[in-house]
Design goal:
This protein is α/β, with parallel strands linked by helices. The protein folds into two domains: 78 residues, no CATH class; 202 residues, Uracil-DNA Glycosylase, subunit E (3-Layer(aba) Sandwich), CATH 3.40.470. 42% of the residues lie in helices and 11% in strands. The chain contains 13 helices and nine strands. The strands form two sheets. It has a six-stranded mixed sheet with strand order 4-6-5-7-9-8, sandwiched between helices. Strands 2-1-3 form a three-stranded antiparallel sheet. Helix 4 runs antiparallel to helix 8. The radius of gyration is 23 Å and the shape is globular.
């Protein structure tokens, strides 16, 4: 590759790193730039050193690679800087916590923005409600699922179906109330299932990536001490890569400064009624309770223990 190309690449990388150091996690990339980025690199001919009569035709590095601080036209997508959902990104706790009133106002403003979001036109067209999230915005514990189902879409609230009832039971068994925690999903709109009025499908990587900034803002404002990721898709949405939940559940992860406990989605427990599986989820919740410094009774410790 030419020296010019390498210099431009270095400049672009430096620029992105500088943005990240300033706390910017996403850059807006114009649709035609995205298309251009998928094309093979054209190596420029070596520069002609003796062309004094020509005006400077080279754009700044930012213009060449299409980076814009503000978008003036339709935006197709926002690309995370670095790996999508990278666990090593800047801590979401770095910014100082907002005073209660400002926090409530910021949360209300975020909610309003999400409720009218149409970044995924196909989902905006098929949804009945945007399912923003519910619970205590000062919660120490946040549950994150994958996406609303039919009942959640109907009611505009996450985890209200049978899986939601089971989640509520788990929360109560931990000695908490649903109102004590915050519950939401990676995706705020129900994944559409054209031709199947009641079916569910897993959100696509693109849908999750598009919606993730809203979840990040929720986490940033709530500042939970622990996040419980319910199921493999929730983990994939947060960390940006597929996981095998059977392999990673029960092991602490960290999402940008916040401990994350992956566990099975309650819907899985409804499908698989084996006590061994329930016990695994309960063990994960015991670990969460320990991390939060919640009291744990002998009865709680011994749930599902045989003999
Ligand atoms: S899924 Fe998220 S990003 Fe897509 S339209 Fe709904 S709120 Fe907007």
């Amino acid at each position: 590759m030419s020296q010019t190309f390498n210099r431009l690449l270095d400049a672009a990388i430096s620029y992105l790193e500088a943005l990240r150091a300033e706390g910017v996690h996403y850059v807006i990339v114009a649709p035609d730039t995205l298309a251009a980025l998928t094309q093979p690199v054209q190596v420029a001919a070596p520069p002609q050193p003796e062309l004094p009569a020509r005006s400077h035709q080279g754009a700044e590095p930012e213009e060449r690679i299409g980076l814009q601080r503000e978008s003036t036209g339709p935006v197709e997508m926002a690309l995370p800087i670095g790996l999508p959902g990278q666990p090593t990104g800047e801590s979401l706790l770095n910014k100082p916590a907002l005073p209660p009133q400002a926090k409530a106002a910021a949360f209300a403003e975020l909610r309003q923005r999400v409720l009218v979001c149409t970044k995924c036109p196909h989902l905006a067209a098929s949804r009945k409600n945007v399912v923003f999230g519910v619970g205590n915005i000062n919660a120490e514990l946040m549950f994150v699922g994958e996406a609303p189902g039919v009942e959640e879409d109907e009611q505009g609230e996450p985890f209200v179906g049978r899986a939601g009832e089971l989640l509520t039971k788990i929360i109560q068994t931990m000695g908490l109330r649903r109102e004590d925690v915050y519950i939401c999903n990676v995706l705020k709109c129900r994944p559409d299932t054209p031709g199947q009025p009641t079916g569910n499908r897993k959100p696509t990587t693109e849908e999750m990536r598009t919606c993730l900034p809203y979840l990040i803002e929720q986490i940033e404002l709530i500042r939970p001490k622990v996040i419980v990721a319910l199921g493999a898709t929730a983990m994939e949405g947060l960390f940006g890569k597929p996981v095998q939940i059977t392999k990673i559940r029960g092991q602490w992860h960290e999402y940008r400064g916040i401990p994350v406990m992956p566990t099975y989605h309650p819907a899985y427990l409804l499908r698989n009624q084996a006590v061994t599986e329930k016990r695994k989820v309960w063990e994960d919740m015991l670990a969460v309770m320990e991390k939060l410094g919640l009291p744990i009774s002998d009865k709680q410790r011994n749930y599902f223990r045989s003999g």
